[in-house]
Amino acid sequence: MSNTDSKASVEALFKPFASGNLELANRIVMAPMTRGYSPNGVPGEDVAAYYRRRAENGVGLIVTEGTLINHPAAGGNPNWPNFHGEAALEGWSNVVSAVHEAGGKIIPQLWHIGLTRKIGDFPNPEALPIGPSGLNLSGEKITEPLTENEIADVIAAYAQAAADAVKAGFDGIELHGAHGYLIDQFFWDRTNKRTDRFGGDLAARTRFAAEIVEACRRAVGADFPIVFRFSQWKGGHFDAKLTDSPQELEQFLAPLASAGVDVFHSSTRRYWEAEFEDSFLNLAGWTKKLTGKPTITVGSVGLDNEFRSSKGDTAQPASLAGLLERLENGEFDLVAVGRALLADPEWAAKIRDHRVDELHDYGTEALKSLY
To answer: Is the pTM of this model over 0.90?
Structure first.
């Protein structure tokens, strides 16, 4: 990272943010990153300490790793954290207390992996993976399509998780509608071939997500923040597109905004890339322009190569100058930081205090411990 990032521009990251009931000390968000350190789905004291460490070093909002809603096929690893059951919810309540004691804010990411789950995966090997049409991300038929009654049960599970987030003291929720997981499988025409009300054109394919948002809104009340994460790319399909133009993006976003989304988390692998031709705006920039809602940008912030890069498994700190200019110009409102914060829990404090020479490189060894 260059030491020429000016003090004035760095301060853009540390301006307070307020939208509705979401009030943050600054614009830095910890991006959700699956860690797998919750045995039997229960986050322990080490998980609480992991999140607290980021909060006490100046992260404004923490989005937890994906947490599994109460559905037997929601996940595919017994060490991924649940967001249901007394023990897991008590664990999350302890995480919230630790983060709040450190002066931070935290929201859980509510997750169902859909047909990225393999048949026989633990913790529930008997549960078949589910998806809108029973198709995996390659378009291969794996299981039968969900029935409308089964869809209703999944929607209810999301709503219950949202209600439990309120009880546990969280500051909002994030719905994971990105990266080829269950909600995103309804969005994508390759995986959604339904002919009922949950399939069809792009707007119709948002119905499942919109009904989840509506159910969560009923469960949490009018003022509890709901963040929605979406992406064009899917796991293993980085060139996938839900929309090819601002007009299509507007058709996609409008039902979600109307359903009750407060903030959109627009996931890209490289935040600096323009989303459409003839405009410099990235996905978060276009989302804010089209909906008027606050947005979170994400994608290799502070690092010199992108997530799952062909350049290898390491990344070095990189200049924030371009990001800060776009933030100051109001293209987006919040900035999510993933791998840089995973490798260095003091990342935000070091940026704030102009200690860029102390920043850590990211390497896969960071994944081998929960620090």
So the answer is: yes
